[in-house]
Amino acid sequence: MCLAPALLAVIALQVYPLANASILSFREWSLTNSTEPGPFVGWDNYAKVLADPIFWGAARTSLIITVCGVALQLLLGTGLAALLRKGRLLHRTARAILLLPMVIAPVAAANIWRLMFNSRSGSVNATLASVGITGPEWLADPFWSIVAIVIVDTWQWTPFVMLVVSSAMLSIPHELSEAASVDGAGRWRTFRSVELPMLTGAFALVVTFRSLDSLLQLDTVYTLTQGGPGYSSYTLTYYLYALGLRNFEISSSAAGSWLFMIIVAIIIVMMFRLDRASREVSS
């Protein structure tokens, strides 16, 4: 009986919206034509989305942002965790300062960076100009707009990686590092041969959480580029937003949402299999 309210909440907040979206994906409904769902059209909405080149461009952009962003965050976060792992006051203060971007709302962070990326008055190009480098049109160029999104995502979420990896490093027994030092191993070799293999669990956790979060992000893209210029920085989430809430193609948006869910589910399964394989190799 105690689980009944929780079960009802799960059904109301998760199962019902998914079921409703599934039904809508097989019906014809555009708010520009009708305020009520139309007849069933089978798989037509799925075929329409899959035939849309903007969908595949958005999928490619989402993949690029996720892979590049997570790789940079993993590299920088691990490096910072290794540099600041000691309990000295300076290291603790530096860790606290570096965690600040993570507590800023993504919309606020994107707004800050949007001003900084302004090609005429932004501080990024002003800094580059001070060393003789001509800054690009960050938010008006198809390539640099994606780079800008990766930079903002990396700046905000590298502290999360640092926090997780730091916690994992603290759990490594000091005896292992001391034994490696006695055997003549330097700091880099000790880290690479002793500590790094023991951080695979933390890396798997970070990659899983950050990949999913990066794939699902909408606020940063919406605030920073709004998918532009053109469709160059459309991600899958922004594509679904534009399809449903700008073009009012409710049925096509529902079909795209289910396709997106399938893509995310496949990625999750692949990540768990890679994690299991890495654990078997390390053991």
UniProtKB/TrEMBL annotation:
Kindly state which keywords UniProt assigns to this record, in alphabetical order: Cell membrane, Membrane, Transmembrane, Transmembrane helix, Transport
Could you name the Gene Ontology cellular component terms for this entry?
A: plasma membrane
Which regions span the lipid bilayer? 63-84, 96-116, 143-172, 255-274
Q: Which GO terms describe its biological process?
A: transmembrane transport
Q: Which Pfam families does the entry link to?
A: BPD_transp_1
Q: Where in the cell is it found?
A: Cell membrane
In which broad location class does this protein mainly occur, judging by the first location in its UniProt entry?
Answer: membrane
Q: How does it sit in the membrane?
A: Multi-pass membrane protein
Instruction: Provide the family line.
Output: Belongs to the binding-protein-dependent transport system permease family.
Q: What is this protein called?
A: Maltose/maltodextrin ABC transporter, permease protein MalF
Q: Which organism is it from?
A: Microbacterium esteraromaticum
